[in-house]
Design brief:
3-stranded antiparallel beta sheet; mainly alpha; single chain; 20 helices; globular; 45% helix
C-alpha cells in the first residue's frame, strides 16, 4: 500500500463536512465580509497590501455593533472616513488574521513513514523527510468560538481538522455539499472543480470502507446535481445537441478578497458592463485558473482581465472531471447494489464521452480543446488541461496516449527542463507562461504513466524527474516550497497575477511526495538532464518503444 497516497487522501477527506445542502449556492449576506459600505471603504483605502487579509480577520464584537459604530463614524465624515481613523476603527473592532485557528497534527502522522525508505537518493530522502514535517505546520483546527459565534468570522465552521495550503490561504479548500471555492463565507457563491467523488474513490481503495460510502453516497450525488442544475450548457454540432458544463457564477459585485483590484479594473469599463465583469472574474476563480489567457481568448484585449469571458468557454478539464466522477458514481452504486442509479450514471458518462469526442477532441492535433460558445470554435492554444481526459480515463481511442505525446512534442513542451508551462502565452497572469503549477504536472505525468505504451511511461518519468529537481533546487536555495514555479529562468518561484507567490504549499508538497513515492528508486537530485528534442526523444526511447510492441 503506497503510504503517501493513502495519507494524503485521508488528509483531504478529514476536512469534509459531509452534510446535505441545497444545490444552489446561497448568496453571501454579510455586510462586513461580502458587500456593503464598510467593506468598500476599508478595501478601497488599501489598509493592507493584500485585500484578502481584511476579509479573513475575525470580529472582536457582534457584527451589529460593528456596523452601528461604522455607520455613525461614516456619517460623521460624510461617508469618507480618513485613512487613519479607518485604520483605528479596524484595529479596535477586528482581530488579527488566523486567530480562529490553532495547530493540529494528524493522529496517524508518523515521524518516519515507510515510503521514505523507497527513495534511493540520500538528498531526496532527507528532503522528503522535511516536506513530511510540513503537514504539521499546515495542519489546523478551529477554536470553539467559531462554532459558538459564527457571525463573528468569515471562516465557515468545520468540526474536523484540516490541512491549509499555506501563505495567504489559511482555510480549507474542499468541503460541504456544493463544495464552495474555499472555507470562507465570501466563497459561498463559487464552487470548486468537482473532485469529491475522486477523493471517495481514493479513500475506498485503501480502506474498503463500504459503510462510509453508503452513508455519504448522496452527498457525492449532490455535488454532481449542483453542476447539472447550475452549470450545464448545450452545444449544437453536426445536427445534435450535446450537454456539457462550464464555470459560471451568476452573481456580480467585486470579489471581497480582491475588492480594490476588481473595482479599479471595472472602472476601465462602461458602468453597464461592470457587473458582468465581476461575475466572469468569479467564474475564473471557480475554475482554479485565476487567471489565465484561457479565459481571455477572444476578448477585446487578450492581455487584459477586463476582457475575461470564462463562462463563454466549455473547459476540457471540468468536463473530464465530471466524466470521471460519473464513471465512479456508477461503480459506487453497483458496489452498493443499486442497479438503477448505476445505470443512470453509466448513461451520463456515455453521453458526456460522446460530447467530449464530438465537441472538444481534435483528431488531427491529438488533444482536446476548450470550446468557445460565442465563436463556435475550439481554442487551439496549448494548456496542460487539454490532456485532462487522458488522466481521467475519459476516452475511447486506444491510441490516444501516442497522440498526446506527439501533441507535447509538436508544441515543444518536452524541451522545458524545469516543468510543463501552464500556457505558452505571456500575459502577466499567474496561470500563464512562464509559470508551472504542481496539479498540472500531475495531470500530464499520471495521464502518460497510466498508458500501456512504454514510451509514454518513460516520458512521464522524465517529466517527474524535471519537476522533482526544480522543487528540490529551489528548496535547497530558499528552504521553502511554493505554489508555482517559473520555468523560464532556472526554476525559481513563480510570479505574476494578483498577489506575491505564496509559500507553503499544500498541493506542491503533495505532488512532490506522490512522485517520490512512485519513482523514488529512480529519481535523483543531481544536475538537470538536458532537454530532449522530439527526434532525440524518439531515439532515446526507441528500445523501450520496441519492448512495448512485444506480445508480452
Amino acid at each position: 500500500m503506497p503510504g503517501r497516497t493513502w495519507e494524503l487522501c485521508l488528509l483531504l477527506l478529514l476536512g469534509l463536512g459531509l452534510g446535505s445542502q441545497e444545490a444552489l449556492p446561497p448568496p453571501c449576506e454579510s455586510e462586513i465580509y461580502c458587500h456593503g459600505e464598510l467593506l468598500n471603504q476599508v478595501q478601497m483605502a488599501k489598509l493592507y497590501q493584500d485585500d484578502k487579509q481584511f476579509v479573513d480577520m475575525p470580529l472582536s464584537i457582534a457584527p451589529e455593533q460593528v456596523l452601528q459604530t461604522f455607520t455613525e463614524l461614516s456619517r460623521d465624515h460624510n461617508h469618507s472616513i480618513p485613512r487613519e481613523q479607518l485604520q483605528a476603527f479596524v484595529h479596535e473592532h477586528f482581530q488579527a488574521k488566523g486567530q480562529e485557528l490553532q495547530p493540529w497534527t494528524p493522529a496517524d502522522w508518523k515521524d518516519s513513514p515507510q515510503f521514505l525508505q523507497k527513495i534511493s537518493d540520500a538528498k531526496l530522502r532527507a528532503w522528503a523527510g522535511q516536506l513530511h514535517q510540513l503537514w504539521k505546520k499546515l495542519g489546523k483546527k478551529m477554536k470553539p468560538e467559531v462554532l459558538s459565534h459564527p457571525e463573528r468570522f468569515s471562516l465557515i465552521y468545520s468540526e474536523h481538522p484540516f490541512i491549509v495550503p499555506g501563505g495567504r490561504f489559511v482555510e480549507f479548500y474542499y468541503c460541504y455539499g456544493h463544495v464552495p471555492n474555499g472555507g470562507r463565507v465570501y466563497y459561498l457563491q463559487r464552487s470548486q472543480p468537482p473532485l469529491l467523488t475522486l477523493m471517495m474513490d481514493c479513500y475506498l481503495t485503501h480502506t474498503n470502507d463500504t459503510a462510509f460510502l453508503q452513508e455519504n453516497i448522496e452527498t457525492l450525488a449532490l455535488e454532481l446535481d449542483f453542476w447539472t442544475k447550475n452549470r450545464t450548457v448545450s452545444v449544437s454540432l453536426e445536427g445534435k445537441n450535446y450537454l456539457l458544463n462550464r464555470y459560471y457564477v451568476p452573481y456580480g459585485g467585486p470579489r471581497p478578497e480582491s475588492y480594490s483590484k476588481d473595482v479599479e479594473l471595472a472602472d476601465t469599463l462602461p458602468e453597464g458592463d461592470r457587473e458582468a465583469l465581476w461575475a466572469e472574474l468569479k467564474a475564473g476563480a471557480e475554475s482554479g485558473w485565476d487567471f489565465s489567457s484561457r479565459w481571455l481568448i477572444g476578448g477585446p484585449n487578450p492581455n487584459s482581465l477586463s476582457g475575461i469571458r470564462t463562462s463563454k468557454l466549455v473547459p476540457v478539464d471540468l468536463n473530464a472531471f465530471l466524466c470521471q466522477a460519473e464513471e465512479l458514481m456508477s461503480n459506487f452504486y453497483s458496489r452498493l447494489g443499486n442497479d438503477s442509479q448505476a445505470t443512470k450514471y453509466r448513461i451520463l458518462r456515455s453521453q458526456r464521452l460522446a460530447a467530449l469526442n464530438t465537441v472538444l477532441w481534435d483528431e488531427q492535433t491529438g488533444a482536446w480543446f476548450d470550446y468557445d460558445l460565442e465563436k463556435k470554435k475550439k481554442n487551439r492554444e496549448f494548456y496542460p488541461s487539454n490532456l485532462t481526459p487522458l488522466w481521467a480515463g475519459c476516452f475511447s481511442d486506444p491510441g490516444v496516449a501516442d497522440k498526446a505525446l506527439k501533441y507535447l512534442e509538436d508544441n515543444r513542451i518536452l524541451t522545458y527542463q524545469y516543468g510543463i508551462p501552464t500556457s505558452l502565452q505571456k500575459t502577466g497572469q499567474q496561470w500563464d507562461f512562464p509559470n508551472a503549477w504542481a496539479p498540472l504536472q500531475d495531470l500530464v505525468i499520471r495521464g502518460l504513466a497510466k498508458a500501456p505504451l512504454r514510451r509514454a511511461q518513460e516520458v512521464a518519468f522524465q517529466l517527474a524527474q524535471n519537476w522533482i529537481r526544480t522543487n528540490f533546487d529551489v528548496y535547497s536555495q530558499k528552504s521553502a516550497m511554493y505554489e508555482k514555479y517559473d520555468v523560464s529562468n532556472g526554476g525559481q518561484p513563480g510570479g505574476g497575477g494578483e498577489y506575491e507567490v505564496q509559500e507553503g504549499f499544500g498541493w506542491t508538497n503533495g505532488v512532490v511526495l506522490m512522485l517520490l513515492d512512485r519513482y523514488g528508486d529512480r529519481l535523483t537530485s543531481g544536475a538537470k538532464l538536458a532537454f530532449l528534442e522530439p527526434h532525440c526523444l524518439a531515439a532515446t526511447l526507441l528500445p523501450s518503444l520496441l519492448l512495448s510492441l512485444l506480445p508480452w
